[in-house]
Design goal:
Structural class of chain A: alpha+beta
Shape of chain A: elongated
Bound molecules: protoporphyrin IX containing FE, iron/sulfur cluster, FE2/S2 (inorganic) cluster
Shape of chain B: globular
Largest sheet of chain A: 5 strands, mixed
Largest interface: A-B, 48 and 43 residues
Mean pLDDT of chain A: 95
Oligomer: heterodimer
Radius of gyration of chain B: 20 Å
Structural class of chain B: mainly alpha
Order of helices and strands of chain B: HHHHHHHH
Low-confidence stretches of chain A: none
Helix content of chain A: 25-40%
CATH class of chain B: Mainly Alpha
CATH topology of the largest domain in chain A: Fumarate Reductase Iron-sulfur Protein, Chain B, domain 2
Strand content of chain A: 5-15%
CATH superfamily of chain B: Fumarate reductase/succinate dehydrogenase, transmembrane subunit
Number of domains of chain A: 2
Mean pLDDT of chain B: 92
Largest sheet of chain B: none
Chain lengths: 248, 224
């Protein structure tokens, strides 16, 4: 398959970026989007040009590093997939494809398609953890967890921190990501001790990082590769309200 | 910082203010619609004027009216403010951005601000047409006659119909959004909220729309 690519090129954080047009030739339909970029980069290197920089690691949809905006959709067309899961057969032969980095004030571009997502790390550092002594492994059955709570917590824990929710949101809001983390720990017994503090600190950090305000249009849920549901946002709103009323 | 102020300043706190003021306005819409149905009593406006005199004479209602005005202003100003702030959160826009693949028309940010702003414009004109002559100038014309005269003009009635369609869209997004913000949308409540939402966004505007249509028709068949 052949594609015309319009790719955002930006040599460093403070340089001006621009779109560059490339022809990708003889791409197998079963290639992932990242493999297609690898093939393109090979030819760029052969021609003595600078390859396109993009983030990737696991290439199996679990690490969350590979986000990019493909033809106006976070992680490309199709649902429930990270960019590395997207296959070139999902596109039409000869199609032109616009590839852009995540765009949000708190996610500044580092280079080409790579953005700095450390804002997410700082939100996690603000409260997305439980304080427990690391020691001998405790007996797993000592802490009972109900099946519905375990299921719901596991659904929330599926978030890979890719940032597609922020990229897809017209307000650049990080509510889905933060809600997944708050929800995950609020549902489990281990998360109870810091429950109120956690949600207040994480929301405060989210606001401080400069993410936008949620307007409940659910573009995040539609683009999330892990199908994190917006009911987690409702739970976070509830947790936040509860913490503000009952704590401190 | 005072924790209530801190709460309000947080992103979720502002959303809660939007949702509570919005829900209050919906309660008002219901009350106003039920009252307005008295216009259909076919008694030359006697019942309607009695009802309206009761509202004006009742101190509790006058007190709530102050909140109503304050909440509309608050909702509108905060809504516009949030919209501007949110636009500023993405300094380099996307070259291609397909929000429409993911979000229904009524919920897109652009729709909410447009429908909201049109409602604000409508409210100004509506208040100028009915509230002003009756309550500020002091009526030389009965309210019922004002209504008859206003809607005999199809342009004026058409403006109302357009406003009600946009109100329907605003509510289609707003009603569910308010419950999401309050943390009430979950597997148990979402079906109930969605069912109630249909009544709110479809039947409230439809009920209001019946008034200009009825009175235009009335004027055509030679009513007042
Ligand atoms: C009868 C009048 C109105 C009613 C019943 C109403 C109702 C609502 C409701 C229930 C919401 C959802 C709140 C939430 O997101 O939690 C909402 C949101 C909104 N309203 Fe209104 N509204 C009215 C008038 C207006 C006016 C005059 C404006 C002025 C521009 C406006 C602008 C907005 C905006 C921008 C939002 C979205 C806020 C956000 O989510 O960021 N509304 N409205
Ligand atoms: S909520 Fe979904 S879209 Fe957002 S960071 Fe987590 S996995 Fe990615
Ligand atoms: S490279 Fe790990 S999720 Fe795509």
């Amino acid at each position: 398959m052949n594609f015309t690519l319009h790719i955002w090129r930006q040599s460093s954080a403070d340089s001006e970026g621009h779109f560059e047009t490339y022809e990708a030739r003889n791409i197998p339909g079963e290639a992932s989007f990242l493999e297609m970029l690898d093939i393109l980069n090979d030819s760029l290197v052969t021609d003595g040009k600078e390859p396109v920089a993009f983030d990737h690691d696991c290439r199996e949809g679990i690490c969350g590093s590979c986000g990019m905006m493909i033809n106006g959709r976070a992680h490309g067309p199709g649902r429930k997939q990270a960019t590395c899961d997207a296959r070139m057969r999902m596109f039409e032969d000869g199609q032109s494809i616009t590839v852009e980095p995540w765009r949000a004030k708190p996610f500044p571009v580092i280079k080409d398609l790579m953005v700095d997502r450390r804002a997410f790390d700082r939100i996690i550092q603000a409260g997305g953890f439980i304080s427990a002594r690391t020691n001998a492994i405790p007996e797993a059955n000592a802490i009972p967890v109900s099946k519905p709570a375990a299921d719901e917590a596991m659904d929330a824990a599926a978030c890979i921190g890719c940032g597609a929710c922020v990229a897809a949101c017209p307000n650049s809001s990080a509510m889905l990501f933060v809600a997944a983390k708050v929800s995950h720990l609020a549902l489990l017994p281990q998360g109870q001790i810091e429950r109120g503090d956690r949600v207040q600190r994480m929301v405060a950090q989210m606001d401080k990082e400069g993410f936008g305000n949620c307007s409940n249009n659910y573009a995040c849920e539609a683009e999330c590769p892990k199908e994190i549901s917006v009911t987690h946002i409702a739970r976070m709103n509830r947790e936040f309200l509860r913490a503000k009323i009952y704590e401190r | 910082m005072n924790s209530i102020v801190e709460y309000y300043l947080s992103s979720i706190g502002k959303k809660i203010v939007m949702s509570l003021t919005g829900l209050f306005l919906i309660i008002f819409l219901v009350e106003h619609l039920i009252g307005n149905m008295l216009l259909f009593a076919n008694d030359g406006g006697a019942k309607y004027e009695a009802y309206s005199a009761f509202l004006v004479g009742n101190l509790v209602i006058r007190f709530i009216e102050i909140f109503l005005f304050a909440f509309i202003c608050f909702h509108a100003i905060l809504g516009v403010w949030l919209w501007f702030v949110n636009r500023y959160k993405r300094d380099t826009g996307y070259k291609k951005y397909r929000l429409r693949d993911n979000v229904p028309l009524a919920s897109r940010t652009w729709t909410i601000i447009t429908t909201g702003s049109f409602i604000a414009l409508f409210l100004l004109i509506h208040l100028r047409s009915f509230f002003w002559p009756v309550r500020i100038e002091g009526g030389h014309m009965s309210e019922y006659d004002l209504v008859c005269r206003a809607f005999s003009d199809p342009l004026y009635g058409g403006f109302y119909l357009a406003a009600f369609i946009l109100l329907g869209m605003h509510l289609k997004h707003g009603f569910q959004s308010a419950f999401q913000t309050l943390g009430l949308r979950n597997r148990k409540f979402t079906p109930i909220i969605d069912a109630a939402a249909f009544i709110v966004w479809f039947f409230i505007p439809l009920g209001y729309a019946s008034i200009p249509v009825y009175f235009f028709y009335y004027s055509q068949i030679g009513g007042r």
